[in-house]
Specification:
The complex is a heterodimer of chains A (about 300) and B (about 425).
Chain A: H1 4-9, E1 18-21, H2 32-37, H3 39-56, H4 62-82, H5 92-113, H6 116-119, H7 121-124, H8 133-163, H9 179-203, H10 211-221, H11 236-240, H12 243-256, H13 263-290
Helix pairs in contact in A: 3-8, 4-5, 5-8, 5-9, 5-10, 5-12, 8-9, 9-12, 9-13, 12-13
Chain B: E1 6-16, H1 25-36, H2 38-42, H3 47-50, H4 53-56, E2 62-73, E3 78-82, H5 89-96, E4 104-110, E5 113-116, H6 129-139, H7 144-158, H8 173-185, E6 191-195, H9 203-218, E7 222-226, H10 230-236, E8 239-244, E9 247-253, H11 254-264, E10 285-294, E11 301-302, E12 306-315, E13 319-320, E14 322-329, E15 335-340, H12 341-344, E16 350-351, E17 354-363, E18 369-379, E19 382-396
Helix pairs in contact in B: 6-7, 6-8, 7-8, 8-9
Classes of the chains: A mainly alpha (about 300), B alpha/beta (about 425).
């Protein structure tokens, strides 16, 4: 919040809350301390998102569980049975259910957080708080659905191992402990993309129409309905540019013990995620300064 | 003297009209194409016809909403920001509350800032009053612990104790406003920026709000208030800044500035209303002109004159159920009279599409000074036309009481014919004390 050269130009020390408002500040200027001051707001926004979702529908959180179950069932029938897409020998239903864990999180984040400026124009026009709080709260609140989905997945998975013949070789490995990290990775990646999309939709309104399309195309480019192992080895690098490839493969590796994950692809995925996140933050906070003038 | 708590230095804000760059990808693509095709266009190619130059032209239409604004505010001051619509008050407030960035210059705020540009920002209808107090408080910059500490006080101020766990969507609009203001009123920033929010709720609650604002000021906090209501500016502030066309026109003691504002911002003479484009309403009927004379047809109006107001109006078709409403104000925007065609009756139910109506009054019991007229025209239940400060007239002195003595405007706004007698001259009537 303090700008050194101005502070030194004055004889009297700055008040603790001195704010200087001036134009054309550096792209890199990011007020982390202020963001931290608004952590209570973050917590309350997460609560708001969740509580309002929960209160509006009768089934409430049941939808969070039903939706991936239905999707996986449809995928299992069409891609597994009809199109016979390979699934690394994992029963198609839980193969798709596992992929839904991370993919659903990403796609929900993008559809709810891909146009933060547009969706909150009225609020942003009336009160200041670090705008970054909003997308972060969205990504965090969507995590609740993930937890519910993970629980339902585990129950179904257990049922498969116990009662479905030919699946006894499936087992949780100790690497399942990495799941929280994988969720974190997915969260950060989707935050980065949300920041980019929000900044772009603030400028180009019509982009809002294509968010869903982008999510869908991205899904087909990611190993959601097929495993990476079905790719010819020499083309895998192309799929691995997509940061979601490593995430999806890592999820299956953790939960089923099968997946095509190389250290290089994981590191690349982390690298792309952080690049998206950092550039996203810069672009986002650049947009927040004058966005309201264009509303 | 203390260091100023707010320092505004050469603050300027440029707005580009129409579009800041492009607002859609298609426009972006068109602009790019226009750039590429600039050369052939200069050569007089057929491309000119396809790209209207005003849409992709290199010089965007822009205006300075604020230009080199300078002023300082000292700790503990309550300062009013006044000016006509478009003078830049809201832009200034938006910059100071960090909602948008200035184009030039800078502002230094030495203290925790809270801005209140709207009451109830961020209220969520599905959540309970309790949840909304926390959420709204946090949006306005309060800490969780701070809200918990003041929770009971906020609830008591808003008078919603019994409904605190009810979703806000079930609140009446009055309760909604009270709760929202209560949260905002309990902010404890060093600097409070407020925009017009005093105009909420019923009279009792407004009074309570004003009282609360006064308390905030007495606690030594700094308050910057934007309002069109000169009465609340006068009662709250010690100093005022008047903005005109984006620049500071005058800074000084509040009475002086309010007076200058009211004097200066009004039309100099009874202008042709056809030149007024800042109207509200659906435009089904428009005021064409207004003229005020005394009953004898002279232009001079004195205390005690009977007045004649002549109004011309125009509409596309004959009118049914129209109501002409003239609000007469004094300098501080206190309403003196309403001349209301519905209240008195007398106009025929149907009026021609274009014509004149005349309103005649009894003796005007107003002390010498200036009066302003706001015009409203209502058709059915729809506001058809509204012109603020459509006209003014000066009331000149006259021997109203026949004694050569008349109260001044500063003492009272109205005069009333009355008689005095000694109680010894005749016995007290039986119904003494009853008026009328």
């Amino acid at each position: 919040m303090e700008i050194p050269e101005i502070a030194s130009a004055r004889t009297i020390p700055l008040a603790p809350h001195e704010t200087i408002i001036q134009p054309n500040q550096s792209w890199l200027r990011m007020d982390w301390a202020l963001l931290w001051e608004y952590r209570d707001l973050l917590a309350l926004l997460v609560h708001r998102e969740f509580a309002s979702k929960y209160k509006q529908t009768i089934l409430g959180p049941v939808w969070f569980i039903l939706q991936p179950l239905m999707t996986s069932l449809v995928y299992a029938i069409f891609f597994g049975r009809v199109a016979k897409v390979p699934t690394d020998a994992v029963p198609p239903f839980i193969f798709y259910l596992c992929n839904q864990l991370s993919w659903n999180y990403l796609s929900t984040n993008l559809s709810t957080g891909g146009a933060v400026f547009m969706n909150n124009a009225a609020l942003f026009g009336k009160v200041y708080f670090p705008r970054l709080v909003m997308p972060i709260s969205i990504v965090l609140s969507n995590l609740f659905a993930c937890v519910l989905q993970l629980i339902s997945f585990c129950l179904i998975y257990l049922g498969y191992i116990l009662f479905v013949p030919g699946t006894h070789w499936l087992h949780l490995t100790p690497s399942a402990l990495f799941l929280p990290l994988l969720f974190l990775h997915t969260g950060l990646l989707s935050l980065g993309v949300c920041l980019w999309m929000s900044a772009l939709t603030a400028k180009y309104r019509d982009l809002n129409q294509v968010i869903q399309l982008i999510v869908q195309l991205w899904m087909f480019a990611s190993p959601v309905i097929y495993p990476l192992s079905s790719f010819p080895v020499k083309w895998r690098w192309l799929a691995e540019i997509n940061p979601m490839t490593a995430v999806l493969e890592a999820f299956r590796l953790c939960l089923f013990g099968v997946g095509t994950l190389t250290p290089v692809s994981l590191i690349m995925s982390i690298g792309v995620t952080f690049a998206l996140l950092l550039t996203g933050i810069l672009l986002f906070q650049r947009t927040e300064r004058t966005f309201i003038d264009t509303v | 003297m203390d260091k100023p708590i707010i320092e505004v230095e050469n603050l300027s804000k440029l707005y580009v009209l129409g579009s800041i760059g492009a607002t859609s990808l298609r426009e972006s693509a068109e602009m790019l194409w226009a750039k590429i095709s600039r050369r052939p266009r200069l050569n007089g190619s057929t491309l000119t016809a396809r790209f209207a130059p005003e849409q992709v032209g290199p010089v965007p239409h822009s205006f300075w909403a604020l230009r080199d604004v300078n002023f300082t505010v000292h700790p503990g001051e309550v300062i009013g920001l006044i000016g006509q619509n478009g003078a830049g008050k809201s832009t200034l407030l938006k910059i100071l509350s960090r909602i948008t960035e200035p184009t030039k210059g800078r502002a230094i705020l030495r203290g925790r800032v809270a801005s209140l540009l709207e009451v109830g920002t961020g209220f969520h209808p599905e959540l309970s009053g309790r949840d909304n107090i926390y959420l709204n408080g946090a949006i306005l910059g309060m800490k969780h612990a701070e809200i918990t500490r003041k929770f009971d006080e906020i609830v008591a101020f808003a008078e919603v104790e019994d409904f605190i766990d009810t979703p806000v969507k079930r609140y009446s609009s009055g309760m909604h406003l009270r709760l929202a203001f209560a949260v905002a009123a309990h902010l404890e920033p060093e600097i409070l920026l407020v925009d017009e929010v005093l105009a909420v709720g019923d009279a009792t609650f407004q009074k309570k709000c004003l009282g609360k604002m006064g308390d905030v000021a007495r606690q030594g906090r700094t308050v910057l208030v934007v309002s069109h209501n000169m009465a609340s500016i006068l009662s709250l502030c010690q100093r005022a800044v008047m903005l005109r066309f984006g620049t500071v026109a005058q800074v000084g003691p509040v009475q002086e500035i309010v007076h200058a504002y009211l004097e200066g911002s009004k039309p100099e003479e009874i202008v042709a209303l056809s030149d007024r484009h800042d109207r509200e309403g659906d435009g089904a009927v428009r005021y064409e002109s207004i003229a005020i004379e005394n009953a004898d047809g002279g232009g001079i109006i004195r205390t005690g004159s009977r007045c004649k107001v002549t109004i011309r109006y125009k509409s596309a078709k004959p009118l049914r159920h129209v109501r002409f409403l003239l609000n007469i104000y004094d300098l501080t925007h206190v309403s003196l009279f309403q001349l209301d065609s519905e209240a008195t009756g007398g106009l025929p139910e149907t009026l021609p599409a274009e014509g004149t109506v005349i309103c005649e009054t009894d003796a005007l019991g107003v002390t010498p000074g200036r009066c302003y007229i706001n015009l409203d025209l209502i058709r059915g239940h729809q506001l058809a036309d509204r012109i603020a400060y459509a006209a003014y007239f000066d009331v000149d002195e006259d021997d109203f009481y026949g004694t050569g003595k008349l109260p001044k405007r500063e003492w009272t706004m109205t005069v009333l014919r009355h008689r005095w007698k000694s109680g010894a001259e005749e016995p007290a009537p039986a119904d003494a004390g009853k008026l009328g």
